[in-house]
Amino acid sequence: MKSCLFCKIVSGDAASDIIYENDDLIVFKDIHPIAPVHVLIVPKKHFTHLIEMVTSEDGRAVLSNIAELLPDIVLAAGLENRGFRLVNNCKEEGGQTIAHVHFHLIGGRPLKLELP
Ligand code: AMP
Ligand code: ZN
How far apart are CA 6 and CA 16, in angstroms? Predict the structure, then answer.
């Protein structure tokens, strides 16, 4: 989608610091990290939010790919020996600010339940 920032990152038209990539997804550093490690797992195909993703066959396949590759992504993020948090903010009330589905992988410090 032309106007979507994460589509531009996927196509290389906007800059990002990529730590992992395959045919279906890209993982890059969040520009405003809330912890020492904060990366975004982003499907290359545009889905506006998680519900749109899981209600399409393509989207479910990508979600399953993310689940399968999670150990590799965690390794690329350097969190294999620590705990982490995996978060999806879905739609406006869920705190989603970028309308291209993504999962926050956060770690590198102790995390409490923080709900601003
Ligand atoms: P959410 O609020 O769940 O939609 O998360 C959007 C995330 O994207 C926020 O944590 C932002 O800091 C991050 N973000 C926004 N623009 C960029 C960018 N150009 N590169 C990397 N991360 C970004
Ligand atoms: Zn997009």
Answer: 10
Global pTM reads 0.97
Per-residue pLDDT of the chain (116 residues; tens, 9 = 90+): 889 999 999 999 999 999 999 999 999 999 999 999 999 999 999 999 999 999 999 999 999 999 999 999 999 999 999 999 999 999 999 999 999 999 999 999 999 987 76
Residue 32 is a catalytic residue: no
Residue 3 near ligand 1, beta carbon < 6 Å: no
Q: Which two tokens stand for residue 69?
A: 């590759």
The CA 69 to ligand 1 mean position distance, Å, reads: 22
> How far, in Å, CA of 11 to CA of 62, rounded?
18
- CA-CA distance, 53 to 110, in Å (whole number)? 30
Domains and CATH numbers, the chain: 5-107 (3.30.428.10)
